[in-house]
Design goal:
This protein is mainly beta. Helices cover about 10% and strands about 50% of the residues.
């Protein structure tokens, strides 16, 4: 008898026992909390594939529910994945540091999408807004475009760091055949009415995903909400764009409307993004973005005082407004191999902001006007170059990369 025979018999016995146990569990009676037998129980298995220990692959279609149209809707269904109110994606409480589509990170932190993120609580005060570029993928890719979502645990975004420890998490989206190799688009249109005013939102998205080239281009405009600008949030860190003039003379406004959040808003955005693979290690990426936001409202109050048979009427009306233009351009070159890493990122960002607040006070028919206005133009230019090379001369023969880094930046005073 072969030495493998006992091992084969033991394997078959374990398989038979496992099957018998599974059948016993499924065919056994199920009772409720009162001990009454349940006539029928349905168990639904959601298929989750695990590969290489550090990668979890979800078959997206098996998790979708009714009304799940966009990739963001589908991501909210996946175990362990959370999508915040601003579109930030995290896995098991840890924010992802890369968002790949078929292995390419075209959008950086702009995978999801607001063109600026205010650091003040008031609705019209936008001091030091940080440029963003982001719901571009998660809100414009439909669920039927996606087959799988991969969670890359202990992710290393550089090949030269293959021997280093990492606790980073990234996502990789796998597309269906009908979403690859050919251009596709997605129009958006919304209409409504508020009192006597018409509300509208219109947009168009064009996409193409090939093995060596990807592009996503969007154009949107609306006169309510954050329909257009919401697609441009930078989730992997803000631009740091804040001039000395902005620090000395911060943005102002009339604050939130006295009753609720009733205000008029117009916003628009244009985003052109592309990435091209030169070969297996080199790639070039470009991102061009522009966003426009305008907020305004008018509020007033009137008080009448009665004394000695006479009356005095005092009224006040405020009309705050804020406008922000935010264009940005960035070009990135990357050469990533197991022995060498070279990257150069050139970026230009601009902000043109205008704030105004007109106040009219009236007492017994006599009116007086007070107004203030603020205009700020900020520019930020930076070139960030990085290069590292592995060193195999160490005692344990592990690649120890040596890093050279240079950053040149200029911003308006």
């Amino acid at each position: 008898m072969s030495k493998l025979t006992p091992l084969i018999l033991l394997t078959l016995l374990c398989a038979f026992a496992t099957r018998a146990f599974a059948q016993g569990v499924i065919s056994g009676s199920v009772r409720d909390t009162e001990g009454k037998p349940v006539e029928r129980a349905v168990v639904k298995l959601l298929l989750v594939e695990r590969t290489l220990g550090y990668t979890i692959t979800y078959n997206l279609a098996q998790f979708l529910g009714k009304g799940d149209v966009t990739l963001e809707d589908g991501l909210r269904r996946l175990p362990g994945i959370d999508v915040g109110s601003d579109g930030t994606i995290s896995y098991m409480g840890k924010d992802i540091n890369h968002f790949y589509i078929e292995g390419l990170d075209m959008l950086g932190g702009r995978y999801n999408a607001r063109a600026s993120e205010s650091k003040q609580a008031c609705l019209l005060c936008r001091a030091q807004p940080s440029l963003a570029e982001g719901h571009l993928a998660t809100r414009n890719l439909r669920t039927d475009h996606v087959t799988q979502v991969e969670v890359l645990r202990h992710h290393k975004d550089k090949k030269i760091d293959h021997d280093e420890e990492s606790d980073n998490v990234a996502l990789n989206v796998k597309l269906s055949d009908k979403a690859k190799f050919r251009p596709m688009g997605q129009p958006t249109l919304g209409l409504g009415i508020r009192e006597k005013d018409a509300l509208y939102a219109a947009g168009a998205t064009g996409m193409m995903f090939k093995s060596d080239f990807q592009t996503i281009c969007t154009a949107k405009y609306s006169n309510f909400g954050d329909f257009a600008s919401y697609e441009l949030i930078e989730h992997f860190g803000g631009s740091g764009l804040a001039s000395n003039a902005q620090a000395l003379f911060p943005s102002f406004g009339g604050g939130a409307p006295p009753i609720g959040e009733y205000r008029y808003q117009r916003d628009g955005s244009v985003s052109l993004n592309a990435i091209a693979k030169i070969d297996s290690s080199r790639q070039v990426k470009s991102n061009v973005n522009y966003s426009y936001e305008h907020y305004d409202y008018t509020a007033g109050n009137s008080t009448t005082y009665f004394a000695g048979g006479e009356s005095v009427s005092v009224s006040e009306r405020i009309s705050p407004a804020s406008t922000l233009h935010s264009p940005s351009v960035s070009v990135n070159y990357q050469n990533d191999t197991e022995s060498k890493y070279v990257s150069n990122d050139l970026s230009l960002r601009t902000q043109i902001e205008t704030n105004g607040n007109a106040v009219r006070q009236t007492m017994d028919g006599a009116a007086s006007d007070i107004g203030q206005e603020r205009k700020v133009r900020s520019f930020w230019l930076a070139d960030n170059a990085r290069a590292s090379e592995s060193n195999q001369a160490c005692l344990d023969c592990r690649a120890q990369p040596s890093l050279a880094k240079a950053t040149l930046s200029w911003r308006s005073p």
